[in-house]
Amino acid sequence: MKDQRYLDHLRHSAAHLLAATVLELYPKAKPTIGPSIENGFYYDFDNLKISAEDLSKIEKTMQALVKDWSNFNHQKVTLAQVKKQFQGNKYKIELASEFAKEGKSLTIYKSGDFTDLCRGGHIENPSHELKYFKLLSVAGAYWRGSEKNKMLTRIYGTAWPTQKELDNYLNQLEEAKKRDHRKLGRELELFTINNEVGPGITLWLANGSIIRREIENFMVNEQIKMGYKHVYSPHIGQKSLWEKSGHWDLYREKMYSPMDVDRTEYLVKPMTCPMHIQSYELKPRSYKELPLKIAEIGSVYRYEKSGELSGLLRVRAFTQDDAHIFCTPQQSVDQFIEVFRFTQELYQVFGFTDYRVRLGVRSKKEKYLGDDAHWKRAEQRAIDALKKAKSNYFISEGDAAFYGPKADFLIKDALGREWQCGTVQVDFMLPERFNLKYVAQDGKEKTPVMIHRAPLGSLERFMAILIENYAGAFPIWLSPIQVKVLPITERNLGYAQKTYKELQEAGIRVEVDERNETLQAKIRDAQMEKVPYMAIVGDKEEKSQSLSLRLRDGKDVGQMKIDKFIELAKDKIETKALDLI
Ligand SMILES: [Zn+2]
Ligand SMILES: [Zn+2]
């Protein structure tokens, strides 16, 4: 296995080869930049109109062209030379001018007949080393990532040192496609996002809603055990509330325009915090009531750019397992740790082990509420808590919320991309802005600390990751249908109905496949629907008041008395087991 540096060089060299080939086939295209990225490379071109169908032709030409590439020849050049060499390519000239201004030296690299402006980082002998690559997709991308600039054509590819590694990676991509939550969401009728309702707005279908309801019930019950008070708050509120909280000043780009109600401006809520603050403010609070934990499965609405919307992973309306803990400053570290441990336990229940924690602190560039001393203290408290919880964390500048530092749980999706799910945030600012008080033990009025937390984060995003992680074969407690009864012949329909009734009365989600199909077809369809248990019933089973149990992975468990099966299924459901047998 070659090291990462070699892989980067290999992939960046492949980007050169791609640009050379595109210029050969489409002489009017303007190459811009072509870096290596995780698992591959891309190159952005202006003046190039192609589709995915053109990729195999480009790939073939790349294979032919690379045979003449025996090395990368480099040469130092002046800005004047660059301007001459890349005449008509304003992108290369813009980059070179900037490098020159920063005092960096300029280099060009030549292999075959192709010359590119480049800082270096190539393999030594492309004709020998650069053989195992594939072009993957075409997409639009703005020059330098800014919407103000022109949209360019980006070609993505991947390159590996051996055929075997390339094949492995392509297989992995295939597998990820099969697990894509948008595809499975459609097939399993979990959710839909359509243009009629609007992009980025989710309609949860019946099957997805069963899963969501199970998750919500689980969260609410667990939190009630931990002393949380669950509430419901409205989806809109007066604009003045959001001005007071600071959202209107510092979070406006994510908020939708105000609506007019009786000549007063109202906003749909981007966060639930100010609503929960109202319940704290209801009456004078004593230290004896703290920590006061107010929780809600709450929907929020945030603007996301249309180009960034992505299935359930990034949407414009979503629901959080939100809560706000009002506590004394002394309690804040322990409360933070409690939330942290709770989140870890939850992830275990859902079978997630591959996650990291990112502690977001301030950056110098952004705007935040409050003074330096407050921030230093809050950041220190968060670090203390993470250390005390013995967590594996890394610090990321600029990832704080505008009112305080936050710790985010990052979970990987099927493509290996990390998504922020759970979050815990320590906040000294909002209690001050809303002038929240409690009477301390010494009789003096003091300001509480607020902890904002959502262990699962957005239920929509969490659902996407669940779908991809399990490829739609959810743990049994979440499965929309837990058992499918499959009568072998029409003769067995009556017994199938009786079995159905017994299972249903035991609280199991069950269906009978009454279609006039072969058993083989019924099994195949139940497997497609990822139903955990198939209960096959024929004459033999009817006679012995039993069923033949089959699992969705094809495993044949054999005959079992109905009572015994109910006991097994109930146990797996109630313990939220990840296995079936
Ligand atoms: Zn290069
Ligand atoms: Zn909040």
TrEMBL record:
<dbReference type="InterPro" id="IPR047246">
    <property type="entry name" value="ThrRS_anticodon"/>
</dbReference>
<dbReference type="InterPro" id="IPR045864">
    <property type="entry name" value="aa-tRNA-synth_II/BPL/LPL"/>
</dbReference>
<keyword id="KW-0436">Ligase</keyword>
<dbReference type="InterPro" id="IPR036621">
    <property type="entry name" value="Anticodon-bd_dom_sf"/>
</dbReference>
<comment type="similarity">
    <text>Belongs to the class-II aminoacyl-tRNA synthetase family.</text>
</comment>
<dbReference type="InterPro" id="IPR004154">
    <property type="entry name" value="Anticodon-bd"/>
</dbReference>
<dbReference type="Pfam" id="PF00587">
    <property type="entry name" value="tRNA-synt_2b"/>
</dbReference>
<dbReference type="InterPro" id="IPR002320">
    <property type="entry name" value="Thr-tRNA-ligase_IIa"/>
</dbReference>
<protein>
    <recommendedName>
        <fullName>Threonine--tRNA ligase</fullName>
        <ecNumber>6.1.1.3</ecNumber>
    </recommendedName>
</protein>
<keyword id="KW-0030">Aminoacyl-tRNA synthetase</keyword>
<dbReference type="GO" id="GO:0004829">
    <property type="term" value="F:threonine-tRNA ligase activity"/>
</dbReference>
<feature type="domain" description="Aminoacyl-transfer RNA synthetases class-II family profile">
    <location>
        <begin position="211"/>
        <end position="475"/>
    </location>
</feature>
<dbReference type="GO" id="GO:0005524">
    <property type="term" value="F:ATP binding"/>
</dbReference>
<dbReference type="GO" id="GO:0006435">
    <property type="term" value="P:threonyl-tRNA aminoacylation"/>
</dbReference>
<feature type="binding site">
    <location>
        <position position="324"/>
    </location>
    <ligand>
        <name>Zn(2+)</name>
    </ligand>
</feature>
<dbReference type="InterPro" id="IPR033728">
    <property type="entry name" value="ThrRS_core"/>
</dbReference>
<keyword id="KW-0694">RNA-binding</keyword>
<dbReference type="InterPro" id="IPR006195">
    <property type="entry name" value="aa-tRNA-synth_II"/>
</dbReference>
<dbReference type="Pfam" id="PF07973">
    <property type="entry name" value="tRNA_SAD"/>
</dbReference>
<keyword id="KW-0648">Protein biosynthesis</keyword>
<keyword id="KW-0067">ATP-binding</keyword>
<dbReference type="InterPro" id="IPR002314">
    <property type="entry name" value="aa-tRNA-synt_IIb"/>
</dbReference>
<keyword id="KW-0862">Zinc</keyword>
<dbReference type="GO" id="GO:0000049">
    <property type="term" value="F:tRNA binding"/>
</dbReference>
<dbReference type="Pfam" id="PF03129">
    <property type="entry name" value="HGTP_anticodon"/>
</dbReference>
<keyword id="KW-0479">Metal-binding</keyword>
<feature type="binding site">
    <location>
        <position position="452"/>
    </location>
    <ligand>
        <name>Zn(2+)</name>
    </ligand>
</feature>
<feature type="binding site">
    <location>
        <position position="273"/>
    </location>
    <ligand>
        <name>Zn(2+)</name>
    </ligand>
</feature>
<comment type="subunit">
    <text>Homodimer.</text>
</comment>
<keyword id="KW-0963">Cytoplasm</keyword>
<dbReference type="GO" id="GO:0005737">
    <property type="term" value="C:cytoplasm"/>
</dbReference>
<dbReference type="InterPro" id="IPR012947">
    <property type="entry name" value="tRNA_SAD"/>
</dbReference>
<keyword id="KW-0820">tRNA-binding</keyword>
<dbReference type="GO" id="GO:0046872">
    <property type="term" value="F:metal ion binding"/>
</dbReference>
<dbReference type="InterPro" id="IPR018163">
    <property type="entry name" value="Thr/Ala-tRNA-synth_IIc_edit"/>
</dbReference>
<keyword id="KW-0547">Nucleotide-binding</keyword>
